[in-house]
Specification:
- By secondary structure, the protein is an all-alpha fold.
- The chain has 2 domains: about 35 residues; about 35 residues, no CATH class.
- It contains 5 helices and no strands.
- α1 runs antiparallel to α2 and α4 packs parallel to α5.
- The chain is elongated and about 50 Å long.
- The chain starts with 12 loop residues before the first helix and ends with a helix.
Length: about 90
């Protein structure tokens, strides 16, 4: 079966198809392919990671974050339990 052309808005069609084949959504695949085409791939790979480690967070901040992502039983959890739950989420 021939693959459908993703359209003129996708700048790196090869990367787009590879991402789609890996099960990534059309929207995210197009965004990643266009970002990678607009800059060097090493620059795209270095973005992100600015958030600090959960180990540096206070318990109140961890509970607030756990509430945002919908972790049940967070009020009774200790700091290590909150960190483990957030990392697993």
């Amino acid at each position: 079966m021939a693959k459908k052309d993703p359209g003129h808005s996708v700048k790196d069609k090869t990367l787009y198809e590879r991402l789609r084949g890996a099960g990534v959504s059309k929207k995210k695949s197009a965004r990643v392919a266009n970002t990678a085409a607009g800059t060097s791939r090493t620059t795209v790979g270095r973005r992100g990671g600015a958030a600090g480690s959960y180990d540096d967070w206070k318990v109140a901040d961890l509970r607030r974050r756990a509430k945002q992502v919908g972790i049940k039983g967070r009020a009774a959890m200790t700091k290590p339990q909150l960190i483990k739950a957030l990392r697993a989420n």
